[in-house]
Design brief:
By secondary structure, the protein is of the alpha+beta class. 54% of the residues lie in helices and 18% in strands. Strand 2 and strand 3 form a beta hairpin.
Length: 258
């Protein structure tokens, strides 16, 4: 079997196999069913290693052993393997989430929280500012500051950006409404999408032709993006500045009134 090394390398990485496992699996897929000797001959893997490789592939679900003499192996269909791997990843992710959720209950978590809250040199809120890089990091920080709102949340962004952050807003808007926190939203973009978002979040949204992504909490904290359609990573600035946040919120109020 003539398989380009480039393909072997890519398949190896995509499916989490080593080189020998990849070559033998591809050999089985190419002929359907084969003995260890035939698999070694087709794949180019040393026969002395092929038995171990086939056993490994069988345990991982990439091959099935038929009860023949000599034993022959059947390569499992790639589609089945892919679904199996996806299910494994989903299960691992759920288990990891459960594990992370339990960290808050540990004594160690209490200790590191105390270190942060009661440190010898506590951080003054007015001194806090940060540059955030990466979609995930920005979204996580945005969720945190919105959840901590006590009076008002102001959102000025595009309808597409709002839609992409649906998960964040759906989780937080209910809590904000329950606590009677005012929500002001101004979006740019298509009218149909804006109407769809109004129904989805059950909030009033105003159309506004401002090409920006700005989020203001309690007119004290402000998070704004400095990039637009970044090819690499999104970048945002977070400031705990009542002066800056109030100034921007006031300008937005004036624009909305006009």
């Amino acid at each position: 079997m003539l398989v380009r090394q480039e393909l072997v390398s890519k398949i190896k990485d995509l499916f989490g196999l080593n080189v020998y496992e990849t070559k033998v699996w591809l050999a089985l897929l190419s002929v359907g069913i084969a003995s260890a000797g035939k698999a070694a001959s087709i794949s180019g893997v040393p026969r002395s290693r092929t038995y171990d490789v086939l056993e490994s592939l069988e345990k991982r679900g990439f091959a099935i052993a038929k009860l023949d003499k000599p034993v022959k192996y059947l390569g499992v269909k790639p589609k089945i393997i892919l679904e199996k791997l996806k299910n494994n990843v989903e299960k691992d992710a759920k288990d990891r989430i459960v594990s992370l959720s339990k960290i808050k209950e540990t004594e160690e978590y209490g200790k590191i929280t105390s270190l942060y809250d009661e440190g010898m040199c506590p951080i003054k809120k007015e001194d806090i500012s940060a540059s955030l890089k990466g979609k995930s990091n920005i979204s996580n920080h945005l969720r945190e500051i919105i959840q901590n709102a006590t009076k008002e949340v102001v959102i000025c962004t595009s309808a597409e950006d709002m839609n992409s952050k649906s998960r964040i807003f759906q989780q937080t808007f209910k809590a904000l409404k329950k606590n009677n926190i005012k929500i002001i939203i101004a979006l740019s973009g298509e009218n149909d999408l804006i109407k769809e978002l109004e129904k989805k979040f059950e909030v009033k949204i105003k159309k506004m032709d401002i090409d920006a992504k700005v989020f203001i909490v309690d007119r004290k904290e402000i998070l704004f993006y400095t990039t637009k359609n970044a090819k690499d990573d999104d970048i945002a600035i977070w400031l705990n500045s009542e002066f800056f946040a109030e100034a921007f919120a006031s300008m937005l109020d004036l624009t909305l009134k006009n």
